[in-house]
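I am still getting used to backbone structure tokens and would like to learn alongside you. Label the sequence line and the structure token line clearly, so we can match residues to local backbone shapes. Would you write everything just below, so we can both look at the same thing?
***
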Amino acid sequence: MRGAAGDVSSVGCRVRDSAIPRHSIREMTAPARVPTFVANIGPLLSARSGRCGRCRVSGTRPRRPLPVGLFLLAMACGPAAPAATTTIPPTSLVVASGPPTAIVAASGSPTQVTLQTFDVPKGSGPHDVAPAVDGGVWYTAQLAGKLGWLDPKTGQTKEIPLGAGSAPHGVIVGPDGAPWITDGGLNAIVRVDPKTNEISVFRLPGQNVNLNTAVFDVTGKLWWTGQDGWYGSLNVGPPGSPGAGGTGRESNVGVYQAPRGAGPYGITAARSTAFEAHAFAVYYASLAGSYLGRVDIATGETTVIEPPTKGQGARRAWSDSTGVIWVSEWNAGQLGRYDPKTDQWKEWKLPGARPMAYAVYVDGFDVVWLTDWGANALVRFDPRTEAFTAFPFSLPNANVRQLLGRPGEVWGAMSGQDKLVVARI
């Protein structure tokens, strides 16, 4: 069922406590004009249950924000040694102690891959990453309520607090070159200006949808998923327009109920340059619903596409350059391939005794990359040979939940180790 769209208006606010670095924050709050529903918010489930272990899930109690005293104490003290840092204004850099760690993996494999890890401040809980325009890498510090930035040349980081109650999940770089964040704690889409660190907050109308991931479609509209059974859009205008970044004009928020309720997780925009049907559609994976959803970007309506394996737990999705959609199937431990032109599926079981396919990403050569929690490894899949190559992580419980890259690099966040990792190809 399609929900109504709300206009987003702008009001001013700022952080007032002197113990917290000051930022310019522009808040855009949409009126609650979507279908009403009762939010059931409760305890966290384990990763194997088919939900993000850190994200709010259905239950009986709402998530409580960190007490103010503890929040300010954490902001003032920073993480403990050896990665000693202090919370400072985001225009400065936080130096993480020790050089980056380089690990060469899988010698003799079809592609030589070097894995390199970088420390981030302890307690960050990095979740998603996005290579930045300036050569750095953005990451969501979910447990700290911050957006982080890493300089891969020096290993230095900076972290920008996003506000009380923040729990950022996903981050992508928009067509304007800025990081855009899906923040489940704030129930908002957040934009951070990469030059000034100004924070723009686009709150969703209604109750918390458990925001997950976002993508921009070909028109410049942002689409998001909410794991509690919602998906939607934020019309921020094309790059360079007065509406880009939420400044200069009002923006529109669309909120839609997902088929089968809870589950919307990873999301991708078809990258095909051909003008066949569905060439510019948006697709999302429903983890709890075990389907691939195709969203008509003109109407917001979803078409359910059933993978061959029932209850496979489609977790994340990514489009290759031809518009084919690749899906990580968490419950089944499989990689799925859906071709919109033929409406045909093909699936492959990942190697190993107990594969758990979490993240999926397709690079510029249309090679598919996944993370396998069962093997604690990065996995490469060559569609031409249909062969998998695994690159084990050197540390246990790496828990890499998402992948994103740029030419010659595939990046992820080791959420279980407070590190970022890059595969250099």
